[in-house]
Amino acid sequence: MNGFEKRAEQLKAKIRAAVLTMLQTCEPKHIRIADIAAEAGVSQVTIYNYFGSKEDLIRDVFKQYVTEQVTEFERFIGSGPTFQQFVQFAVLTDKDAFRKFTPEFIQQMMSNDLAFAAYIDEVTQQTALPLMTRFIDDCKKQGQISDKVSTDMIVNYINLLMAQSHRLLEQAKQSGKGEQFFEELLHLFFYGVCGMEPEV
């Protein structure tokens, strides 16, 4: 990468970081290119040159976030975690997403942006679920997950939750306790209503 390319990537990173910060408190429709430019310390022309439009920029930011999370998930699974460690990882990941993006924004991206929704589905089906399936199989072999529930059923349950993601996001918002909502949801998923967390 030459000096010009390096400078361009640095500017793009500043712009993405500015948008990510703004999305924590603002809906996309309330964010203006002028506000992004001021936050990032760049000109509006620079933003248009690199990203084309506000919509394309916001999509790029969210897509990069998802890609980074998938990469981190791959790294984490590759480290050979226990089931308990995986639950903790999942809780922290959901909390991080809830802090960075409002439920309305996530709903909008998944409902109104067909290209982005297709990207999420592709990442889920080709990367996340295969990794999850192998992890579940390993945990079952090690006695960390009950043999009474098949891997296919667990994956089907995950797909069921994903299909209801919009409703779950709305309920998380209405609860006023978004992070706690997802923590309880994950506990319910992994340990059931009567199940107890294994001792560490």
From TrEMBL:
Superkingdom of origin: Bacteria
Keyword Protease carried by entry: no
Record Gene3D superfamilies: Tetracycline Repressor, domain 2
Record InterPro entries: Homeodomain-like_sf (IPR009057), HTH-type_Tx_Regulator (IPR050624), HTH_TetR (IPR001647)
Alphabetized UniProt keyword annotations: DNA-binding
DNA-binding region, residues: 32-51
Pfam families named among the record's database cross-references: TetR_N
Keyword flag DNA-binding: yes
Domain named HTH tetR-type: residues: 9-69
Cited PANTHER family: ACREF/ENVCD OPERON REPRESSOR-RELATED, TRANSCRIPTIONAL REGULATOR, TETR FAMILY
Protein name: TetR family transcriptional regulator
